[in-house]
Structures are given as C-alpha cells and as structure tokens.
(pine wood nematode) hypothetical protein (Bursaphelenchus xylophilus), 248 residues
Amino acid sequence: MSEESEKSDQVSVCIVQKIVSYEDRRRFILKTTGTVLIMLGITVLLILLPFMIPSLREAIHKVDNSLVWVLFLFHFVVSNVISCCCFRCLFMSPLNYFLLTGYAVLSGLVLMVLCTYYSIYAVILAMTATIVCVLATIVFAGVCKKDLTSLWFVACVIGLSLTIIMLGAIIISFYVDSTALYWISMVLSFFLVLYFMFTLTMKIQSVIGGTNRQIVFDEHAHGVAAFSIYLDVFGLFVNLLNLTNLAR
C-alpha cells in the first residue's frame, strides 16, 4: 500500500479513534480550545465593529434588508461545502488554520450585519447568555457519566426534524400575521437553543475523550473539532439573540 493511501486511511478514521495518551489528549484539548477562542475573538470583534463605528452601521442599514437572508444563505452553503467537500482540508496544517480563520471572518460578517438591527444591550445580553450556556454545557459534559457520543443518530433525526419545521415556518410566514410569526420564531429559537446545547455536549465529550466514549476525536482532528464546536456556538448565539426580543 502506498504512503498516500495510508495517510488517506488515517484521515478517514481519525475522528473516531480513541486518544489513549494523557499528553496527546491534553495537547489536543489545548489546540482545539485555542482555535475556537481565536475564531470567537475574530467574530466578536466584527460584531462590535458597527457599534464602535456608527457610520458603518448606517451604511449597512442603507442596504436592502434582504442582505441578512442572502448572507445567511451564503453562510449555510459555505458551511456545508466545508463539511462535505473540504472536510479533509481541516486535517492539513497550516491549511486548516487559514480555512478556519476565513470561516470565522465570514461568520463574523454575517453576525455583524444581523446585530446592527439590535441594540448593543441585546447583543451583549445574547453574548452573556451564550457564554453561560457554553460553560453550563462544558460542566455537564464533564460530569455526565452517560456516553452522549453514542446518540449522534438521535441528534441527526432531531436536526432534520427542526430543519423541516423551519422550512415550514418560512412558508407559513407568508400567510400569518406578525404576532403569530413572532411567537413561532420564539418557540423555534427556544428548541434550537436546546438542540445546539445537546450537540455541543456530545462534541465536548468527544473532545475530552475517555475509554467509555463511543466516538472520540483523534489528536489530528483538532481542526474538525474546532469547526464543529464553533458551528454550535454560532447557532446558540443567533437563537439567543432572537430570544432577546422577549425582553423588549
């Protein structure tokens, strides 16, 4: 078997291998955590930019409101392209760092445009709530004895169901009044927050590792782990930001 074939086989299974060495696991956790924090730092900086530069916020508001939907659609497409077509690139250093940095910039720009339609207080509240949810999830993932990594099929079914419900909500939005649409979005955001916390718990358990975990990220998969965790945090923030409308 050629060296390239051996590397290909290693990449294809490296997200399900168990990290036995304590040093390997510690190094992997540090790499993953550091990468996620840098990505989140870039995102937060871009989110706050229009609030620090009022003229930028005014310029964004002069553009058609459909810009938000276009950006979210583009972000959705890019996320799926990375997940399906560029998956192997997340294992290749330094290519994975460039890819993750670019994705963080794109996500930050999407959220920057979205957040300009909210007050700074709503944005800070959503950020605080996101931090609390993530910390609570980390603690729960660490102390939970049950192997949640074995529930990926359940997570996929729930995710598919929520996607279908969201598509249905978009169709219904053309036929209901604004009040009904408001409460539909609130209820949907609430369940999406629970879903992202559920999947984030599974991913954190996969990062932490352990002999009782069915799926554990290998030490070479820190790019995959960081991308996956960042997606959940992104989803958490967007839906918590929507839920801040309840505080108005």
